[in-house]
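quick q for whoever's on today - can somebody do inverse folding on this one?? i tried earlier but teh output was garbage lol. tokens:
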């Protein structure tokens, strides 16, 4: 990337910053929405569940199979996950 910036622009220097990432511990589970399986990521902090998030590709596949809007299936999957792993 540096080489491209120097050869394709008028830049004669650039600043670099290292960026780190802090990720929560994760577990995986699944829920059913009208019989369609949807994988769920379960995020924990200090052992407590702080977030549950459906896998988007599974939500889309379920929405297609059920002929329902993606946002409706996503909402149902989140609700099921929250019931299963209360946050």
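ok took a stab at it. sequence:
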């Amino acid at each position: 990337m540096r080489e491209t910036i120097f050869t394709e622009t008028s830049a004669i220097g650039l600043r670099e910053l290292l960026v780190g990432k802090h990720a929560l511990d994760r577990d995986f589970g699944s829920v059913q929405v009208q019989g369609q399986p949807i994988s769920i990521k379960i995020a924990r902090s200090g052992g407590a569940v702080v977030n549950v998030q459906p896998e988007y590709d599974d939500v889309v596949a379920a929405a297609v199979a059920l002929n329902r809007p993606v946002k409706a299936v996503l909402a149902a999957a989140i609700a099921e996950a929250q019931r299963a792993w209360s946050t």
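fwiw The radius of gyration is 20 Å. also The chain has one domain: 24-84. so keep that in mind when u check it
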